[in-house]
Amino acid sequence: MRATLMYDAGDVRVEEVPDPVLQAPTDAIIRVTYACVCGSDLHPYHDLEATPEGRRMGHEAIGVVEQVGSDVTTLSIGDTVIVPFAWSDNTCAFCRDGITTSCVHGGFFDGASSATQAEKLLVPYADGTAVVIPAGTDESLMPSLLTLSDVYLTGHHAAVRGGVEAGKTVAVIGDGAVGLSAVLAAKQLGAETIILMGRHESRTDLGREFGATHVVAERGEEGIAKVLELTDAEGAHIVLEAVGHMPAYEQAYGIVRPGGVISRVGVPQYEDAPVGFTSLFGKNATLTGGPATVRAYIEAALPQVLDGTIEPGRVFDREMPLAEIAEAYRLMDAREALKVLIRP
Amino acid sequence: MRATLMYDAGDVRVEEVPDPVLQAPTDAIIRVTYACVCGSDLHPYHDLEATPEGRRMGHEAIGVVEQVGSDVTTLSIGDTVIVPFAWSDNTCAFCRDGITTSCVHGGFFDGASSATQAEKLLVPYADGTAVVIPAGTDESLMPSLLTLSDVYLTGHHAAVRGGVEAGKTVAVIGDGAVGLSAVLAAKQLGAETIILMGRHESRTDLGREFGATHVVAERGEEGIAKVLELTDAEGAHIVLEAVGHMPAYEQAYGIVRPGGVISRVGVPQYEDAPVGFTSLFGKNATLTGGPATVRAYIEAALPQVLDGTIEPGRVFDREMPLAEIAEAYRLMDAREALKVLIRP
Question: What domains, with CATH codes, occur in chain B?
Answer without folding.
Answer: 2-150+293-343 (3.90.180.10), 152-289 (3.40.50.720)
